[in-house]
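Structure ticket #2291
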Amino acid sequence: MRFGMSGCFLPENMDDITPEMCRRVRSLGFSGIFTRFRRNDPHTATKAQAQRLRDLLADEGLRLYQSTGYWQNMVTSDESARAEAVRTIQAALRLAGWMGSRGIDTGPGSMNPAGPWFPHPDNWKPEAKRQLVKTLNECKSAAEDAGVYLSLESHQLVTLKDAETALEVLDEVNSPWVRCDYDSANWINLDTVFDTGRALNHHFDLLGKHIVSCHAKDIWVENKLCVHLQDGCPGKGTMDFKTLFRRMEELNPDFPVISEGNNTDELPMVSELFHNTARELGIRVLDANEEPQARAN
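Resolution: structure written out below.
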């Protein structure tokens, strides 16, 4: 198993990554990163910029597990807007390949103008799912050309509202380069928040063949009279990380598990939780340059 971190002290511009930051990541017990370079337009960022980052990470013994797909609206019925989304995703994949990223992370987008993860009734219409499949089909060759996974993240507020819907979409697209980035919290609801292991097992049973990475995030119910599920720092809620790690390791020891929902000050605690959980399960944690051991037949 490989452990990665996201956000926190990582900058929004790839040009600002330093050797000191890389060493800090490693000292905290992580072998790779997930970056959201909001300041780097995928249409204009240069190959030289990306190569500088790629070389720096290699020199410092870090992997780039994921970079961003820039949160495009893949489900819109506005064909001009959807065509622009395709163009941006293709550019993001090309840039990710230049950077040496294993994959890009992106959700399907939302019809809510306030943000790509917010609810809107049109997100769950059959047309949205058809548009999503159409968009992914138009992007999958770019993923293959770049050698980069187009890793779809899901959430119950957007078109990929549950594991069943995600399975339908990924099966229809049917590409080894369009896969699932599994977020442990995003499909947890009131029925499963106190039994997250059951939910995780159901999701992995359905989607295991499509999952290639994981965002390890916690979730809990807040004490409010209106139901509110809050996601956040690993270790603060009801997430069954033992089940999550066991199921990821069973898929492939090479797949990264990336912390999400925490801030910089919480990173040492998250790292301790991750490493202790792996140790309890007998899971070998790999450095960036280590390869998984061959499994016995």
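Closing remark: The domain at 2-281 is CATH 3.20.20.150 (TIM Barrel).
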